Amino acid sequence: MNSQQIEYFLEVVRQSSFTKAAQVLYTSQPSLSRQIAKLEEELGVSLFNRSRTGAELSYMGRKYYDAFLEMQQKLSVLSMEARGHAVDYEKNLCIGIPEGWDLRPVVEKVNEKLEEKDIRLNMEFASYSYRSLLTLLRNHQIDGCICPKGLIAPMDNMAYTDLPPLKNVILYSKRHLPPENGVSYTIQDFRQDRLLLLQQEDISKPKSYQLGFLHEKGIVPETREYHNIDSILLDVSLNKGFAISDIWSRGVSDRSLGCLVLDQKMPICIAWNKHFGSAELSLFVDVLCETLQKED
User: Fold this and answer.
1) What is the pTM for the complete model shown?
2) What is the C-alpha separation between 149 and 241, in angstroms, rounded?
3) Mean pLDDT, 10 residues at a time, the chain of 296 residues
């Protein structure tokens, strides 16, 4: 039994559906079902009464749901208490961001704003896959996260504040063929190229977002999926395809890559568990919004 299996079980109960839970958790339904089956095998009970119309909690399933939920809530409270006893009693925040983002320029400007306001706030930023990011946020293992709004909006018990949307970009190799018009690249210069994506099971919504944008432009590319951002950027630099990202991608500053700004922006937000907000987080949100609005 592990924390992922417990989280999967709790989400199925929250959503009253294996299919909906899989969508929220950014995993496939077969993968979710396997994890639930392993949990049931280890516990020695059936957690759900399954039928053609769906799955309902069994008697023991209800017992385990209450126990796991109580355990999760207690761990969240302990996590928050532990961070409150940090060295020097600084105000500490842990903010999650998607892997592949480079927020150093933004963080530097936020720190400047905090210094201007004479506020001492110790911030830690950590990058994760989207699925890990949402799990950590739900379990209050991070204070908040900055991510695409589409990931947060469907989730229960989450609060969020909109941030200025990010410009989308195409990242391509500087070895790419010259633009057809002989002057500058357009999106049509990549219509014959392969689109490099992160694995669908991990982040299906961003994949749909990218393909939907290209389809609107009349482009239906061949695709290839990867396990991580680094592998995508490497193959883009080797001219094995192109990637769609945003201006916070660290690929934008890669000297081996070119960057084409698109006529589309991605809505983003900063989100947190509505039951575990804090004065420090509210302060950070206000300063972050102020910083980004001036940059926009």
Assistant:
1) 0.68
2) 27
3) 84 82 75 89 89 81 88 72 51 84 88 83 84 83 89 79 94 95 94 88 67 92 89 94 94 94 92 79 87 75
